[in-house]
Each structure stands twice: as structure tokens, then as C-alpha cells.
Amino acid sequence: MKESYPFRQFTISIPREWIDFNDHMNAKYYGLVALxxxxxxx
Length: 42
Description:
Layout: H1 30-40
């Protein structure tokens, strides 16, 4: 069985404009978060 890598926590501040009326992140911004994490090398 392949060993798993340790969990690496990443924290980012989300602009208030990305939050919808019921305090969930708007779906159109999930791709941007994935891109930021990818660029950060996480």
C-alpha cells in the first residue's frame, strides 16, 4: 500500500464579495481557490 503524505494545512482569506446570501462561498470562486492553492505549491 502506498504511503500517504502528511496533511498540509493552507489558509486563505476569502473576500466578502465571494460569499453568497446564506454565507456559503459562491460556486464560481472555487476554481480560483484551487488555482491559488496550486500556485502556492500545496
